[in-house]
Amino acid sequence: MADSEPTISKGLEGVYIAESSICKVDGQNGRLYYRGYPIDALAKHSDFEEVTYLLLNGRLPKGKELEDIKKQLASARDLPQGIIDIILEQSGKADPMDTLRTATSALSAYDPETPDMSPAANMRKSLRIISRVSSIVATIGRVAAGGKYVKPDDSLGHVANFMYMLNHKAPDKRQLDIMRDMFIIHAEHSSNASTFGTMVAGSTLADIYSAITAGISVLKGPLHGGADEAALRMMKQIGSPENTEKYIESALAGKQKVMGFGHRVYKAYDPRAKIIKAYLISLQPGASQELKTYTAIALKAEKMMVERLGASHGIWPNVDFFAGPVYTAAGIPVNLFTPIFAASRSAGWAAHMLEYWQNNRLFRPLEKYTGQVDLKYVPIKERE
């Protein structure tokens, strides 16, 4: 009997891979929920530690529970010398995401619980990873700027300590507010490419360091984590607000992708982009000329794209479009945009892995073979 013709969903579009109670992306209405809580409410009222607890445990923490998770994250921040040495060795030679991937993978050598796959051990390892990935990213940025490793300050919260280790000084209120929200809105987003990559690796029952290293590898690509860098490079290329219309018209005429617009799931305005856009506008009083220029370009490009393709094609600004200018306002260098995304998303990756392991099944999809069969082997001397 001949094989039936399979249905191939390219990029697994429209294919459900699992059941999950972690995150709901309502793409039609432009809503995003973490464990049932709207993202705008979490960005307004919460902090990264509380969101991390929510993602990992399925509910908001009580007072003592929040204190405990803050202590657990703080206790794991300091990096082993071997990890610092990796960062020093690769600085200036490797892409920061490559250094992050290598250093995160190497963390497993410093965790005696790495082979322990019990739920309790995996929870403890998850918190260590979430804590230390942020420390690694801060140290990558610190070393790249010519500085030395800064030991963490346990008196600071997770995001404030990240900024302290990056700059060797505590952030001001504006920087802290920006980065707190950026960490929260990047912490989770359902079964996106990097989360799926994490789950594929973890479904083999590889340890959680292996799984999250896979997630970091997937996140590196410009179609996923690198899109905010690409959007900012586009704004730099446009150069001035007066050039925006010509650039967008040319890109659309040539059917080129305008970075920061469109999303596989959202057919309405990305709610995360709304939060970042509001921040960007609020930063204008007293902003540098560079930030004002980026803002003017971004708002003009947004207006054009929404008028042309928003309602008619479902192409709206996504989380990456306004992120670059906002990171710039917080003093974050471009090469740290995607590593910071990873530092935030490590909480979501860990949450999905812990959930999936409760009812694990190895991912093993099929593919349609289109090649030949039963070819006759010809010795090399006869292939001429």
Give a description of the structure.
It is a single chain. This protein is mainly alpha-helical and 384 residues long. The protein has 2 domains: 18-225 and 348-359, Citrate Synthase, domain 1; 227-329, Orthogonal Bundle (Cytochrome p450-Terp, domain 2). It is 54% helix and 3% strand. The protein has 16 helices and 3 strands. It has a 3-stranded antiparallel β-sheet with strand order 1-2-3. Strand 1 and strand 2 form a beta hairpin. Helix 5 (96-106) runs antiparallel to helix 10 (208-219), helix 8 crosses helix 16 (337-356) and helix 13 runs parallel beside helix 15. The model has no long low-confidence stretch (mean pLDDT 95).
Concise account of the structure shown:
The chain has 384 residues and is mainly α.
Structural topology:
Layout: E1 23-26, E2 31-34, E3 37-38, H1 39-45, H2 48-57, H3 63-75, H4 81-90, H5 96-106, H6 119-144, H7 158-167, H8 173-185, H9 193-203, H10 208-219, H11 227-238, H12 244-253, H13 271-282, H14 289-313, H15 323-329, H16 337-356
Antiparallel strand pairs: 1-2, 2-3
Helix pairs in contact: 1-8, 2-16, 3-6, 4-5, 4-6, 5-6, 5-10, 6-7, 6-16, 8-13, 8-15, 8-16, 9-10, 9-16, 10-16, 13-15
